[in-house]
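General statements about sequence and structure are easier to judge against a single worked case. No coordinates are needed to read the tokens, only the vocabulary itself. The sequence in question and its structure tokens are set out directly beneath this paragraph.
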Amino acid sequence: MKFTVLLSVLSIIVFSSCKTNEKEGKDILLEEGLTSVLERSLKDKIVDIWYPRTIDSTHGGFFPDFSETWEKQGKQNKMIVTQARHVWTASTLASFYSDSTYKEIAKHGYTFLKDHMWDDKNGGFYTLKGIDGDSLKVLSTSKSAYGNSFAIYGLANYYKIYKDTVALDLAKKTFYWLEEHSRDSVYGGYFDIMKQDGSWLLGIKENNNNYSDFVRKDWKDQNSSIHLLECFTALYEVWPDSLLKERLEEMLVLVRDTITSEKGYLTLHLQRDWKPVSFKDSTDAARKANFWLDHVSFGHDVETAFLLLEASHALGKENDTVTLHKAKKMVDHAIAKGWDKEKGGFYDGGYYLDDSDTCTIVNPAKVWWTQAEGLNSLLLMAKLFPEENYNELFEKQWDYINTYMIDHENGGWYDEGLDSNPDAVKNAKAQIWKVNYHNTRAMVNVIKMLKGDFELTEHKH
């Protein structure tokens, strides 16, 4: 096998697959070289770029808005998702690097969640607050299961490094708040959009209160569902409660068997009784106008493949071939229908216009978080199914990210690959929906996998 390792400022690796008897030994050497490149990229292009730059020592929490050259620029609103993701990320880095610096950053973020984002009157976490002089004011009149799920995710991970029972109690409190306000006891699952007091918008005809995403008020969705699965997994790892176990098992089965279609992709939105919301029979104009409500999201599919296996592992399910095969099917579908075979990278969105096997790419953008989740799941599949060609695709995906996604001059990742959008060089490097959780998690996971230190591959399903 011929391969060339270029250890330059850009840290680019080029190598080809090997089909000789020497493959295993040379692959080990190859992985050792790639691991070093990934470790350096994680530290230089993600970790050291985001911290301490994003820490808000005046108002608490983290600044979310930065320009293409990492200048503070924008409203700097405090959204629960952004803030909680920072807590999760800093806690992960504290464990990964065994560095107290990141423990302190995580503590800074946790304190902000506890003191400023929790609603003392109604319970649950506020969705959005804005800086108003020396104080913060509530900007959103709705609550979100999605947002509260990330609060649990961050708090559970924070508890792992600090063993702070107050933080764990807040995570439990959030779980019980979702149980009381968001969960559908009739059909199962959770509603995402709620009023500030946690009551449902179900049946309300007019949006008199300007609730965000009002059209989704009566529906359930894959996005909040997969992240509830994700946060319940994290919480169960530190709090093996019997009710939590029931809910985690319920979400595992719902996501795997109901929300995920037979073809292997997630249905974006579903009615209360889990009937898929579809615009397939609508006009082309209507389908385009409602793209955000109904399409194949390849990024969520490859991410969910990982989350399903993670949940199954946390529940201690041995030989869970049902979940394993569904996860593989999701990744395989994304590769077959949403992968750029020439350059690498996953497209943003596709659509099945009829009952055929043809999935039309309707949004060819290569969004940053999708590429990160793809990197993680491709290597996960490579480790679980070494006889197949996932490792080659993983290598190509990393080459794609390194070439088109990482800003080697200013640091950070572009919000979209430069091959699908050359103007992404001008776009903000950070905003409330673009934080460092997806790519940090992906990079940490693949480094661990390459080192043989990852639970999902140590104990195969």
Observations:
- The CA atoms of residues 1 and 26 lie 8 Å apart.
- Residues 56-279 form a domain with the Glycosyltransferase fold (CATH 1.50.10.10).
